[in-house]
Amino acid sequence: MDRINGEGIPRDHLRFALKNPRMIADARRIDSCLLCRASKVNAAGICEFCYALLDGEELRMVTRIQTGVEA
User: Fold this and answer.
1) What pLDDT band is residue 7 in, cutting at 50, 70 and 90?
2) Can you give the pTM of this predicted structure?
3) Which of 13, 32, 34, 42 has the most crowded Cβ, counting Cβ within 10 A?
């Protein structure tokens, strides 16, 4: 999967973005999903729709961020 929306980051860059606190903080500040730019993002900067699409390492990283553990 490349991009869900042309304005968001490519899916294959998500793990990098989740390791970058500034990118997450910016997504949360403007309430814009890292992947699709939808609003109502979680602590990791991901919206509900994109969160449902995550699996494997991406899901583990987002879960750690949401629980306050470093990615």
Assistant:
1) confident
2) 0.86
3) 34
62 and 54 Cβ atoms separated by less than 8 Å: yes
Interval 24-35 mean pLDDT: 97
* Number of domains the chain is built from: 1
The Cα 36–Cα 45 span in angstroms is: 10
Quote the CA–CA distance of 13 and 17 in Å, as a whole number.
Answer: 6
Query: Residue 31: which domain range?
Result: 11-66
**Residue 1 falls within a domain, yes or no?**
no
φ/ψ of 60, rounded to 5, equals -65, -40
Please report, for residues 32, 43, 50, 67, the alpha-carbon distance to residue 5 in angstroms, rounded to integers and kept in the order given: 12, 20, 11, 27
How far apart are alpha carbons 51 and 35 in whole angstroms? 10
Q: CA angle, corner 6, sides to 4 and 9, nearest 5?
A: 70
